[in-house]
Design brief:
By secondary structure, the chain is mostly helical. It has one domain. Helices cover about 65% and strands about 0% of the residues. Helix 3 packs across helix 4. The longest helix is centred in the middle third of the chain and has 14 residues. The chain is globular, with a radius of gyration of 12 Å. The N and C termini lie close together (about 10 Å).
Length: about 90
């Protein structure tokens, strides 16, 4: 199960892997976006658990990266939905 979760997040957020690994993800400021990402993941994939919570930083990194282009959040939401439907 853990390797499936790791593989899924690596596929969904490949550009953020090094920041996550190096713990250089910025602090969250885009809380609406973050809530949308978490809700989408939990509705489309599975509820976050003790293990998958470590990947919330991927959602944070994505939201912080999109803060100047809020309309792009929907693209990320669609990517999560599609990624989970094929996983």
């Amino acid at each position: 199960m853990r390797s499936d979760v790791d593989t899924l997040f690596a596929k969904l957020f490949p550009t953020h892997l090094s920041a996550i690994k190096n713990k250089t993800v910025p602090n969250p400021t885009q809380f609406d976006c973050l809530r949308t990402m978490v809700d989408t993941y939990e509705a489309s994939c599975q509820k976050l658990n003790d293990y998958s919570l470590k990947w919330v930083s991927a959602f944070v990194a994505e939201c912080e990266g999109l803060k100047s282009v809020p309309e792009a959040v929907q693209h990320s939401v669609t990517r999560i939905q599609e990624g989970c439907s094929t996983a």
